[in-house]
């Protein structure tokens, strides 16, 4: 799968990138929503894992723009308070909002669901 990881925290980007590459996926990263939108303009992704709270452009604003550009891409939001964000994220086109910090198995399970 071709996956975009969007997070302003370097440690989250590095962790997800390392794990997903080890699992055999193609992975690109973006530091914020604005950078994510620019990457989606250049190429398509199967899944985007995006933080909600980031500088320059937050994840929810990025999802609105990205879903207009690519209706097929699966977007998973990540937030420290997913209960508050889950409904908003889904209204904008995300399939879910997972809790940070997350278990790596949760990421793998989501990918398996999308692949099925």
Describe this structure in words.
There is one protein chain. The protein is α/β, with parallel strands linked by helices and 116 residues long. The chain is 49% helix and 22% strand. The chain contains 5 helices and 5 strands, in the order E-H-E-H-E-H-E-H-E-H. The protein has helices at 10-22, 33-42, 59-69, 82-92, 104-115; strands at residues 2-6, 26-30, 47-51, 74-79, 96-99. The chain has a 5-stranded parallel beta sheet with strand order 2-1-3-4-5, with helices on both faces. Helix 1 links the parallel strand 1 and strand 2. Helix 2 (33-42) runs parallel beside helix 3. The chain is globular, with a radius of gyration of 12 Å. The protein starts with a strand and ends with a helix. The mean pLDDT is 93.
The gist of it:
The protein is α/β, with parallel strands linked by helices and 116 residues long. It is 49% helix and 22% strand.
Q: Which secondary structure elements does this structure contain, and how are they paired or packed?
A:
Elements: E1 2-6, H1 10-22, E2 26-30, H2 33-42, E3 47-51, H3 59-69, E4 74-79, H4 82-92, E5 96-99, H5 104-115
Parallel strand pairs: 1-2, 1-3, 3-4, 4-5
What labels describe this entry?
49% helix, 22% strand, 5-stranded parallel sheet, 116 residues, alpha/beta, globular
Biggest sheet, spatial arrangement of strands: 2-1-3-4-5
Helix/strand-derived category reads alpha/beta
What is the alpha-carbon Rg in Å?
Answer: 12 Å
The portion of residues assigned to helices is: 40-55%
Tell me, rounded to a whole number, the average pLDDT: 93
Largest sheet: 5 strands, parallel
The helix tally amounts to: 5
Series of H and E elements? EHEHEHEHEH
Q: Report the β-strand fraction as a percent range.
A: 15-25%
Tell me the total number of β-strands: 5
Low-confidence stretches: none
Q: End-to-end span in angstroms?
A: 12 Å
């Amino acid at each position: 799968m071709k996956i975009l990881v969007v997070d302003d925290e370097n440690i989250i980007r590095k962790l997800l990138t390392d794990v997903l590459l080890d699992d055999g996926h193609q992975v690109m990263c973006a530091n914020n929503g604005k950078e994510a939108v620019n990457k989606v303009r250049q190429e398509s992704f199967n899944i985007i894992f995006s933080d909600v709270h980031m500088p320059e452009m937050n994840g929810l604003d990025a999802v609105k723009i990205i879903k207009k550009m690519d209706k097929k891409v699966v977007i998973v939001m990540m937030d420290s308070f997913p209960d508050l964000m889950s409904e908003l994220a889904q209204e904008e086109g995300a399939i879910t909002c997972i809790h940070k910090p997350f278990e790596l198995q949760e990421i793998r399970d989501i990918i398996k669901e999308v692949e099925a």
